[in-house]
């Protein structure tokens, strides 16, 4: 479903600020895989997400989604293959629009545009049905402005909207990092439920090692633009934070730079 081949990306090449953001990255996700990615700041996690979604293009290498080479396809055209939820709860929704208007916009994202109303009676019933699965009471607040929702409610809505079009890949870019612990736990549980129910192929970046261990069937560790460790499903079941930190030290010969943030 996702295939990255020998991806390289250098920023500010030839200057004092030159940074090798992605260094010969190879990654394959099969249909239904849920892969978590961990790594310290500057490891290349967000650059990898931006590469997959088309925000940036590689200097060398190829990006394939569902068998299609999308390496040089624009972000706009690539959006029909990808659902993405960002760290900032404000990023995935339109605050001045109502809940049902946001849902209608997401629902129509990969459909032929027409002059018909975005929110029909049939769609409204469907929106109520899917919102009820979140157990947040949003199904009774369809006409409420999204800007009035809490961060957790907005992130739950963003997550639902990202899956509406049944994308080939769901990208979760530290989507619980800006939330307080109780809301982060809520969104983590909703994520687990939605991915399990839809079977979406999912790639999730997180700074939280325990979250990376609790979610998904595979785990990847990045450092300095490289994938330095890949853990498959069976081995992941027995992983602990302690063994992950030891693996990093074994591979790199030093302790991970910001363990405190990763352990939070």
Describe the structure.
The protein has 264 residues and is α/β, with parallel strands linked by helices. It has a single domain (2-263), classed as P-loop containing nucleotide triphosphate hydrolases (Rossmann fold, 3-Layer(aba) Sandwich). It contains 10 helices and 10 strands. It has helices spanning 45-53, 75-78, 99-107, 121-132, 151-163, 181-198, 209-214, 233-236, 241-252, 259-263, and strands spanning 2-11, 19-29, 34-38, 60-65, 68-69, 82-85, 169-173, 201-205, 218-223, 226-231. The longest helix is centred in the C-terminal third of the chain and has 18 residues, at 181-198.
Q: What structural keywords apply?
A:
six-stranded mixed beta sheet, 35% helix, 264 residues, four-stranded antiparallel beta sheet, alpha/beta, globular, Rossmann fold
């Amino acid at each position: 479903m996702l295939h990255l081949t020998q991806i390289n990306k250098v920023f500010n090449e030839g200057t004092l600020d030159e940074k090798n953001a992605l260094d010969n990255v190879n990654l394959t996700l099969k249909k239904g895989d849920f892969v978590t990615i961990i790594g310290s700041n500057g490891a290349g996690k967000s650059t990898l997400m931006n590469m997959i979604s088309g925000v940036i293009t590689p200097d060398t290498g190829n990006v394939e989604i569902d068998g299609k080479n999308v390496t040089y396809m624009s972000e706009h055209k690539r959006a029909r293959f990808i659902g993405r939820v960002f760290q900032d709860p404000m990023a995935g929704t339109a605050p001045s629009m109502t809940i049902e208007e946001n849902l209608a916009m997401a629902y129509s994202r990969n459909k032929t545009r027409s002059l018909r109303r975005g929110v029909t009676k049939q769609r409204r019933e469907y929106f109520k049905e899917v919102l009820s699965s979140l157990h947040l009471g949003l199904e009774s607040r369809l006409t409420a402005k999204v800007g009035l929702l809490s961060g957790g409610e907005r992130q739950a809505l963003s997550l639902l909207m990202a899956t509406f079009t049944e994308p080939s890949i769901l990208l979760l870019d530290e989507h619980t990092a800006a939330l307080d612990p109780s809301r982060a736990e809520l969104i983590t549980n909703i994520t687990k439920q939605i991915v399990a129910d839809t079977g979406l192929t999912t790639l999730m970046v997180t700074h939280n090692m325990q979250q990376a261990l609790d979610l998904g069937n595979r785990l990847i560790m990045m450092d300095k633009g490289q994938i330095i460790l890949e853990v498959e499903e069976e081995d992941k079941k027995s992983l602990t934070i302690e063994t992950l930190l030891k693996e990093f030290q074994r591979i790199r010969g030093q302790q991970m730079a910001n363990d405190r943030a990763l352990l939070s």
